[in-house]
Design brief:
Layout: E1 5-13, E2 16-23, H1 37-48, H2 61-71, H3 73-78, E3 99-101, E4 106-108, E5 119-126, E6 134-140, E7 147-153, E8 161-163, E9 180-188, E10 194-201, E11 208-215, E12 241-246, E13 251-260, E14 274-282, E15 295-300, E16 311-312, E17 336-343, E18 349-355, E19 363-371, E20 387-393, E21 412-413, E22 418-419
Antiparallel strand pairs: 1-2, 3-4, 5-6, 6-7, 7-8, 9-10, 10-11, 11-12, 13-14, 14-15, 15-16, 17-18, 18-19, 19-20, 21-22
Length: 442
């Protein structure tokens, strides 16, 4: 067990699973090593205070902070920090303050953890046939490391329940259960079924994957179960839908987002199909610059039970993608991060993403691809070539900077080290008339 983290079941009783976490670290350095080459390279950049090579993209924050916590770096950085009052109790709730009074509106607590553990990378979706039913998700560290927490509301967000689902029974490709989950995402289909997903990985080892759980219509996100197609699926939490499950130490799947064709109104030819896009980091392509992070796509046509093989959809563009290719095509748009899928009114699938195949450091761009409603989107040839949406300027200074506390290899805004990457994924909505809009930080 040296150098590995494992969950071990201590016992099962109705409604309760007791788990213990065991970790092994190097006695000389106190830093956790990692057998995944993508994560090892990015962790080394953080700990040693250097940039990633060229225009390589960062893995998501939830993944990185999990690695930093396992290495002991977060504990070291936290020494000397001061915290304010917890504000734990108030009327109408036990333990956590329910509302936070503002100058014009009152904010309602969504996740019910009040321990000040890390919560980040939020997502919220609304049931298309009942706008009072909402599901939110966030990276959640209340039970150690980074997990995927999900919340639900049946009254339009006035009150919420929350949970950290039992996703640790899912086995990765090496036969071990995951240590952590990051980048939660959620969606509803037109029938009212809800789907959630995340990136699952071992902190010290190479395996990682993307899995999907379901909450049947009527449950509304209050709990999740297997999407297996059979009558008693509601009472099973395994197997989950498998989108990706890799053991190659050069591969890490990251920043996945899920969306269903809600098809209301009217229904489209692909109503209730479920789509998922993500960034697939490859530390050794054997071509070009030798590494890349293209956008991948997979779909389910049976309610999340089975998923098509992942395909690369970020494509190539001779005018926009001119530098730093990790593929045989020198114009491949393959240095990507942060895809955002959306389904148009007619069933067209659109995917926007950030791209760094540009010659100037600090200048990136946002791209978009699409698959028409008449085509099988699991076939890469049915996707359009990427079109440039906009430049994205990210010239804020790099850390490490001891005067501001900016971490190594990251970009921060002075003077208080507010972290802001060179580019982050944008938001891609479509309105009732079928018009697309794109918003991003610049």
């Amino acid at each position: 067990m040296k150098g590995k983290l494992r969950f071990v079941s201590l016992g099962l009783v109705p409604g309760l699973v007791a788990l213990a976490l065991f970790a092994s670290q190097s006695p000389s350095t106190g830093k956790t090593s990692n057998a995944n080459n993508v994560l090892a390279r990015q962790l080394a950049a953080e700990l040693n205070g250097r940039r990633l090579p060229g225009k390589s993209q960062h893995v998501s924050s939830g993944v990185m902070y999990t690695l930093l916590q396992a290495s002991g770096a977060l504990d070291a950085r936290a020494k000397g920090l001061k915290t304010g009052p917890l504000g734990l109790s108030s009327s109408g709730t036990q333990g956590c303050k329910r509302t936070f009074v503002g100058t014009s509106v009152n904010d309602v607590r969504v996740n019910q953890d009040c321990s000040l553990r890390r919560q980040a990378e939020e997502v919220v979706v609304m049931k298309p046939t009942d706008h009072s039913n909402l599901i939110a998700g966030q990276n959640d560290s209340r039970i150690g490391f980074n997990h995927c927490g999900y919340d639900w509301s049946f009254d339009g967000g006035t009150t919420w329940g929350d949970q950290v689902p039992p996703f640790w029974q899912v086995f990765l490709g090496d036969g071990h259960t995951a240590d952590a989950c990051s980048d939660p995402s959620a969606t509803f289909d037109s029938a009212g079924n809800a789907y959630v997903t995340g990136v699952f990985f071992e902190v010290n080892d190479a395996p990682n994957g993307i899995f999907v759980a379901k909450s049947n219509a009527g449950i509304g996100g209050a709990f999740y179960h297997s999407p297996l197609v059979q009558s008693f699926q509601t009472y099973r939490d395994t197997p989950m839908g498998v989108v990706a499950n890799d053991t190659d130490p050069n591969i890490f799947n990251d920043k996945e987002f899920i969306v269903a064709d809600a098809g209301v109104p009217p229904a489209t030819p692909k109503s209730n199909n479920v789509y998922l896009t993500w960034t697939r980091f490859n530390a050794d392509t054997g071509q070009g610059v030798g590494l890349n992070s293209p956008i991948y796509f997979s779909q389910s046509t049976d309610g999340g039970a089975t998923w098509s093989d992942g395909i690369e959809i970020s494509g190539s563009n001779a005018d926009a993608c001119t530098d730093f290719s990790g593929e045989t095509d020198p114009n491949a748009c393959d240095q990507d991060q942060g895809s955002h899928p959306i389904v148009g009114r007619d069933g067209t699938v659109y995917v926007a993403f950030g791209n760094g195949n540009t010659p100037e450091f600090g200048l990136n761009q946002h791209m978009i691809v699409s698959c028409p409603p008449s085509a099988d989107c699991s076939n890469a040839t049915n996707w359009t070539a990427p079109v440039k949406i906009s430049d994205d300027y990210g010239t804020q200074p790099f850390g490490p900077d001891s005067s501001t506390g900016c971490l190594g290899g990251r970009q921060c805004l002075p003077p208080n080290a507010y972290r802001l990457d060179g580019f982050v994924e944008g938001s891609l909505p479509v309105d009732a008339n079928g018009s697309l809009y794109f918003a991003w930080a610049d």
